[in-house]
Design goal:
Number of helices: 13
Low-confidence stretches: 3-33
Distance between the termini: 31 Å
Structural class: alpha+beta
Shape: globular
Order of helices and strands: HEEEEEEEEEHHHHHHHHHHHH
Largest sheet: 5 strands, mixed
Length: 379
């Protein structure tokens, strides 16, 4: 899920150090030239240098001058996400490359990574459409098929989980829980792009907005592992989860997917790992974080592999580094499971602080070059 919390992470001191992930926001990659739209995020403002720019590839050069960790979004008028960058720390900069068509949009800064954000309306004028090579078109088509497949395969896995909940079978539900989430975690940026689905199915208790009813996987996770009972409302929660995920499956085919959204989505998945899985916050009751961790990495790697034919022409050194870092991180994850063909990972509460630091370092080592993939694709 998209992490929703203030800049001071409420975790143990050892874990707080792990959340300082340099791969999530670069110190000096937002440059002032080359026609980039400058976005200055503050605690009480979102300043945009241009309110109008031409269609094609746009570059947002973001600088966080506030005191809180922030997110920056480029949004369609209906709040669907064109592109985003999370976890931009105070005093840091980040560059976001996106593909946009003519129309009206909003740029939103979210200090503290909460709420609707501070918004600025922008207009994308006629101009030239972003150039697409046959390799780019093939990558988008293949990724669209992958996302739909992951969504389709999620529903029967979730039904095993929700059927057990409805039957009051606590052990059966626990056994099915982590597997039911794999397809979602692999393709989470696409799911999050719709805006309204993620808060229904994947929000944690500390991410609830005022007045929001808590539904979804993590509400049931708490019931199973912490409360150790399935109360009278559990069956209704299971029904709602089935319904919301069925809605997601129907809408996946309509998602806006571009080569840059694939590349940015891969980076977002690494941010998900850094801010939720490595810290143990995502699956705080079940401790199945490493299953989600692996699924996020698999989703990021799928996007990368599909874009690799384009990126290798434009930036072979980046591709070599990404190959190396994906290999290293996957090898490290394999040490936490006996069978590489299974998703039976060590419970995360059995992973010590030093090991979590090693995992965090592996994520950071991959996140930094992965943040450059979108720019390499459109060179």
């Amino acid at each position: 899920m998209r992490p929703v919390r203030p800049s001071v992470v409420t975790a143990a001191a050892t874990l707080a150090a792990l959340t300082a992930v340099p791969g999530c926001a670069e110190k000096s990659d937002a440059k002032g030239g080359d026609g980039a739209v400058q976005v200055v995020a503050k605690d009480d403002a979102c300043e945009v240098s241009k309110k109008e720019f031409p269609a094609g590839h746009v570059r947002l050069a973001v600088e966080n001058k506030g005191s809180k960790v922030t997110e920056v979004y480029l949004l369609f008028p209906d709040d669907r996400i064109v592109t985003e960058r999370e976890n931009i720390g105070p005093g840091t900069k980040a560059t976001i490359t996106a593909e946009v068509k003519a129309g009206d949009y909003e740029i939103a800064c979210k200090p503290g990574m909460k709420g609707d954000g501070i918004r600025q309306k922008v207009t994308v004028t006629g101009g030239k459409a972003a150039a697409r090579s046959p390799e780019m078109d093939a990558a988008v088509a293949a990724y669209r098929q992958y996302v739909q497949q992951q969504a389709d395969e999620t529903l029967p896995r979730v039904k095993v989980f929700t059927d057990a909940v409805r039957a009051g079978d606590i052990e059966g539900a626990k056994k099915a829980y982590a597997a039911s989430r794999i397809g979602w975690e692999r393709t989470e940026p696409v799911a999050e792009s719709f805006g309204d689905i993620d808060p229904k199915v994947d929000v944690r208790e500390d991410g609830l907005e005022p007045g929001q009813k808590w539904t979804g996987w993590h509400r049931l996770e708490k019931a199973l592992w912490q409360e150790k009972k399935l109360g009278p409302g559990a069956a209704a929660l299971a029904d709602t989860l089935d319904k919301d995920l069925a809605d997601w499956v129907k809408r996946v085919g309509k998602a806006e997917i571009t080569p840059t959204s694939m590349a940015n989505g891969a980076k977002e998945l690494l941010d998900e790992v850094a801010t939720g899985k490595v810290t143990g916050e995502e699956e705080r009751y079940s401790h199945t974080d490493l299953v989600d961790f692996k699924a996020n990495v698999e989703g990021a790697q799928k996007s990368y592999e599909l874009l690799k034919p384009v990126a290798s022409k434009n930036d072979p050194a980046l591709v070599a580094e990404l190959d190396r870092q994906f290999g290293s991180l996957n090898a490290l994850l394999d040490t936490y499971r006996a069978d590489k063909a299974s998703y039976d990972f060590r419970p995360y509460d059995k992973v010590g602080a030093a090991q979590r630091k090693e995992l965090s370092d592996g994520v950071n080592a991959l996140a930094e070059p992965l943040s450059k993939l979108a720019a390499a694709v459109v060179k």
